[in-house]
Design a protein that fits this description.
Layout lengths: L3 E2 L2 H8 L10 E3 L9 E2 L5 E10 L6 H14 L4 E11 L5 H18 L2 E9 L7 E11 L14 E5 L4 H10 L1 H5 L4 H8 L8 H10 L3 E4 L4 H13 L2 E5 L7 H10 L12 E5 L2 H10 L4 E8 L4 E5 L2 E4 L17
């Protein structure tokens, strides 16, 4: 396709015709010539925004991009309402590829009742593979807003599901052929299908009702990065039991194979929470069918301890996510 905005006929066929989910709060949505979306909120509701690009993979990026942004909104206790998309495509892109990408976006929008309200789609030589950036719009009652910086000394630290969910799925997709030569097909398929676990919207809804002081979606930098960010935002220290952090065997196997640290692997699908009664929160989550575990507690001071049996270590500032190492590995 030619460089620049995609033709209006392609925009209508490949983009707008794929988008069907509508929200009553959205007064102005995606349309030719519209530069802005408009959302009406009640006086006691807070407008919550989040934005994130997907650059680490091209596989299922439409689904992944919307899901990650919805997770960010959910971590604030907000209900996702809509998304705005910026889609940058290389000249090698064609209309079927654009249509497929938008269908992936709409699948998640329909699942979570989110409206794609607008955005920008462009062919450009500035990229050599697709880049999708999503801005999310959510709403939450003023007294239900949750922040990353709300943790307090004495709170329990809770995580949902398992760490490394997103990274495991991406690795299995990006390195599928190589992995099939090393692991059974059923193992690789299960690892690929971890993307079905990436939404944290359900656990966020349960947590808000159960009572949480802070929530943080575990994304780039893995659980170690998320713990550091939560502690820094809240001005507290941590004591974390390494052995209590839940991890799937598929993640362990793939990280060992590629010599990756699973605790620094992108982990969308795992929500980090703090609560004055973490055990009650875990029970409430499990009643909703969501696995969860208490992995430690918040303490006074700045020390962020990782306890592994009789050994203690201290968290360091977040490093580059382990996922990026796989792109330097032949396979």
């Amino acid at each position: 396709m030619e460089t620049g905005k995609i033709p209006e006929t392609v925009l209508k066929r490949a983009v707008f015709r794929q988008l069907h989910t509508r929200r009553p709060e959205v007064l102005v949505g995606a349309s030719v010539g519209e530069d802005c979306a408009a959302v009406q909120l009640a006086p006691d509701e807070v407008f919550v925004l989040s934005t994130d690009p997907v650059t680490g993979t091209e596989k299922d990026m439409g689904r992944l991009a919307v899901q990650i942004t919805a997770n960010d909104l959910a971590s604030a206790g907000a209900e996702p309402v809509g998304v705005l998309l910026t889609v940058l495509l290389p000249p090698s892109a064609d209309e079927p590829m654009i249509r497929m990408l938008m269908r992936e976006v709409e699948e998640v929008c329909e699942e979570l009742d989110i409206q794609a309200m607008g955005g920008h789609t462009e062919i450009t030589t500035a990229v050599n593979r697709p880049v999708l950036s999503v801005t999310g719009v959510g709403k939450v009652k003023k007294d239900c807003l949750v922040t990353t910086g709300g943790a307090r000394a004495g709170d329990d630290v809770v995580v949902t599901k398992w760490i490394g969910i997103e990274g495991t799925s991406i690795i299995a997709k990006e390195k599928e052929q190589e992995l099939l030569g090393r692991f059974p097909g059923t193992f690789v398929k299960e690892a690929r299908d971890f993307d079905r676990l990436i939404s944290v919207v359900p656990e966020a809804a349960v947590a808000v009702k159960s009572g949480v002081s802070a929530m943080h979606d575990v994304t780039e930098g893995g659980i170690y990065g998320a713990l550091w960010e939560l502690a820094e935002a809240s001005g507290i220290g941590l004591e974390i039991d390494l052995k209590a952090i839940p991890i799937r065997q598929e993640t362990v196997e793939l990280c060992e194979y590629y010599r990756l640290n699973p605790y620094q692997l992108i982990s969308s699908g795992c929500m980090l929470m703090t609560s004055a009664d973490g055990w009650r929160l875990v029970r409430d989550l499990e009643k909703a069918g969501i696995p969860a575990a208490v992995i430690g507690r918040c303490v006074e001071g700045k020390a962020k301890k990782i306890i592994n049996g009789g050994e203690e270590a201290y968290l360091e500032r977040p490093k580059t996510d382990e996922l990026y190492k796989i792109y330097h590995i032949k396979g």
